[in-house]
Design a protein that fits this description.
Helices cover about 45% and strands about 15% of the residues. The protein has helices at about 15-25, 40-50, 65-80, 105-130, 145, 155-175, 190-195, 195-210, 225-230; strands at about 5-10, 30-35, 55-60, 85, 135-140, 180-185, 240-245. The structure holds nicotinamide-adenine-dinucleotide (NAD).
């Protein structure tokens, strides 16, 4: 299965893409800590009920104290931390609008969760991963970072920052045996997206039309790529971003 004996933290793992990734990591043998603002313990219980080892913790990734507690919880519960999936992000709650109409407070919050959040989670994971002699960090960026989609300038900017941060951290952390890669999803029918009818109405059809593989993209479509970067088959790959979008954008 590839991830036996590994301990993984998935931020935003209670639903959507994060929940699918948490399950995929567990199915490959990892013990999983689900860190989420909401519903973490319920999601962990669902995994435990299915026979996996999992723990849940309420974490706001933009909080220094919460992210420190998250790393400590992985070590307390499962004895270490090997894999960090930085999936938590603000997207599905956003209403598309021209950039000039974006409230600066909304801009700050998007950046705080989508970029500062990853910085804090990686920083918290550094000592535990170093104690294990290395680790894997997977960030979830987005295809929009390459395409420059309109009407979500703050979100697009934040995901561009995730791609660049992935490269910078890969360079800094490679010597410590910590590999850092990113998965860039296309428009995915996650729980959050399905709960925002305006987003679905505006983005679903155009996304389908622009895809070589002309079907809806689901959270499960991302599991293989994330688990690849978390596991032994990617042992000589770092700093990369893999676009997973059914062939909408060739990176
Ligand atoms: N769905 C898409 O089309 C799509 C496309 C490209 C990239 N992404 C990225 O994938 C990731 C997951 O998206 P999704 O569509 O599954 O989202 P979702 O809304 O379905 O789930 C997001 C989860 O993150 C949690 N979360 C939000 N803010 C948090 C915070 N501050 N701290 C901890 N947890 C927090 C939420 O509680 C929720 O459980 C995001 O980073 C998003 O930007 C999504």
């Amino acid at each position: 299965m590839g991830l036996e004996g590994k301990v993984a933290v998935v931020t935003g793992g209670a639903r959507g893409i994060g929940a699918a990734v948490a399950r995929g990591l567990a199915e490959r043998g990892a013990r999983v800590v689900i860190a989420d603002l909401d519903g973490a313990e319920e999601a962990a219980r669902t995994l435990r009920d299915a026979g996996f080892e999992a723990a849940g913790l309420r974490v706001d990734v933009s909080s220094e104290a919460d992210t420190a507690a998250m790393a400590a919880a992985a070590e307390d519960a499962f004895g270490g931390l090997d894999i960090l999936v930085n999936n938590a992000g603000i997207y599905s709650s956003l209403t598309p609008k021209p950039f000039a109409e974006i409230d600066p407070a909304e801009w700050r919050r998007v950046m705080e969760v989508n970029t500062l959040g990853i910085f804090l989670c990686c920083r918290a994971a550094l000592a535990p991963m170093t104690r294990r002699g290395g680790g894997r960090i997977v960030t979830i960026s987005s295809g929009v970072a390459f395409k420059g989609n309109p009407f979500m300038a703050h979100y697009v900017a934040s995901k561009g920052a995730v791609v660049s941060l992935t490269r910078a951290l890969a360079t800094e952390l490679g010597p410590r045996g910590i590999l850092v890669n990113s998965v860039a999803p296309g428009f995915t029918l996650s729980d959050g997206v399905l709960g925002n009818p305006t987003l679905v109405a505006g983005v679903k059809e155009p996304s389908l039309r622009n895809r070589v593989l002309a079907r809806d993209m689901l959270p499960e479509d991302l599991v293989g790529a994330v688990c690849f970067f978390a596991g032994p088959d990617s042992a000589f790959i770092t700093g990369q971003t893999l676009v997973v979008d059914g062939g909408a954008y060739y990176h």
